[in-house]
Specification:
Number of helices: 6
CATH topology: Jelly Rolls
Number of strands: 16
CATH superfamily: q2cbj1_9rhob like domain
Shape: globular
Number of domains: 1
Strand content: 25-35%
Order of helices and strands: EHEEHHEEHHEEEEEEEEEEEH
Structural class: alpha+beta
CATH class: Mainly Beta
Helix content: 10-25%
Length: 239
């Protein structure tokens, strides 16, 4: 199988994998901690449906005892996001008309200007436009668990539209050493094989419909969430 961190030849598929985004030893400590946590059956947008998603999850939102893990994950995701938008700058440029200060003058943000920014310039811009989603830690049992339903990350059930603010999905693979268990993208015909510490980013829309295949010979453990747009009142002010 080809290296999952390298996109196949041809047009870009907008699936980005960064190996060693998290230290393998750190990942192992998280997996060990999760073994002592009070997990709950994995939910999808409409509830608990084990035939669609069979996992045991821990949501980190509001959990002060897991704040260190959430902070480490979000820091790694920000690093990955900078890499992603430099590679595909219209991730940020296309949805919004933005201006940046340059030499005492304001200029419209172009793809070329974005790619030329250093981390100190780009990070606050990303934080102004985007926000992190709630992180889930998920364990998929060997030979049984998985998320076999072909799905995307956008759906309109939430009355506040939070789920429609999702722009990118991300997954950190916290372990490997099992068979199968790849994240499979339908239209891109690409399977991303879990590798401890690697970070996957991809668009949240139906174009990147995907599923999590069943692991064999060992449990699969991941952290997953989204990068969301800030709400309109934050981006544009109250109206």
């Amino acid at each position: 199988m080809s290296d999952p961190a390298v996109a196949p030849p041809g047009p870009p598929d907008f699936i980005h994998v960064i190996d060693n985004a998290l230290d393998a030893a750190w990942c192992a400590t998280v997996v060990e901690r999760l073994g002592h946590a009070d997990l709950h059956p994995g939910r999808i947008g409409s509830g608990v449906f084990p035939d669609m998603k069979d996992s045991l999850d821990l949501t980190l939102a509001g959990r002060s005892d897991w704040a260190d893990v959430a902070n480490t994950l979000n820091t790694a995701v920000m690093t990955g996001l900078r890499d992603y938008v430099r590679r595909w700058p219209h991730t940020l440029v296309a949805p919004l008309m933005l201006e940046v200060q340059d030499g005492g003058k304001r200029h419209r943000l172009t793809a070329e200007r974005l790619q030329a920014m250093d981390d100190a310039q780009l990070t606050p811009l990303l934080m102004q436009v985007f926000r992190p989603g709630a992180i889930n830690l998920q364990r998929y049992a060997a030979g049984r668990g998985g998320y076999p339903y072909w799905h995307c990350e956008l759906f309109p059930r939430d009355a506040h539209g939070e789920t429609l603010h999702r722009h990118l999905l991300w997954t950190v693979y916290l372990n490997d050493g099992f068979g199968e268990g790849a994240t499979e993208f339908l239209y891109q015909q690409r399977k991303v094989v879990p590798k401890t510490g690697s970070l996957l980013l991809a668009p949240a829309a139906f174009t990147h419909t995907h599923r999590g295949n069943r692991p064999l010979g060992g449990d699969k453990v991941i952290a997953t969430s989204w990068i969301l747009f800030q709400r309109a009142e934050t981006l544009f002010g109250a109206r």
